[in-house]
Amino acid sequence: MKIILFDGACSFCHASVRLIIERDPHAYFRFDSLQSEAGQALLEDDRVPSQIDSLILIDGNTYYTKSSAALKICKHLRGWWKCLYVFVLIPRPLRDLLYDWIAKNRYQWFGTTDQCLIPTEDVRRRFLP
Which sequence spans correspond to the domains of the chain? Predict the structure, then answer.
């Protein structure tokens, strides 16, 4: 099972989760917020450093953060999103500079939210209990 942990207060992150769900027809990914009890337990179980403020992809016993997580996710999406995976050829420190710039400004550019999505039953099953 592949689990995506995202910032539950970030509007951009919520939009990204909706985008992933729409382009992941085989339900390859499951979701939870970094702030949830289940999310915190996964971080602890997989020994992810607590100071990481990033999108996190947990794939078995391995976790990916920042641009590596985003590109691994894109690799499994339907449509042209798969093409973005080619950017793994760029050294991770350079990719993460762009990721960090967007992450640093995400609240200012896209705002925050205290509302959860109201998913259909199908989508609800894709979130961790």
Answer: 2-124
The label of the residue with tokens 């992150």 reads: 13
Could you tell me which of 2, 1, 4, 74 has the C-alpha nearest to residue 39?
A: 4
| Assigned token pair, 40 | 């915190």
Does this model's pTM top 0.90? My answer is: no
pLDDT digits (tens, 9 = 90+) for 31-69: 988 888 888 888 887 777 767 778 899 998 899 999 999
SS (H, E, C) the chain: CEEEEECCCEHHHHHHHHHHHHCCCCCCEEEEECCCHHHHHHHHHCCCCCCCCCCEEEECCEEEEHHHHHHHHHHCCCHHHHHHHHHHHCCHHHHHHHHHHHHHHHHHHHCECCCCCCCCHHHHCCECC
Structure confidence at residue 129 as a pLDDT band (50, 70, 90)? low
The whole-angstrom separation of Cα 75 and Cα 80 is 10
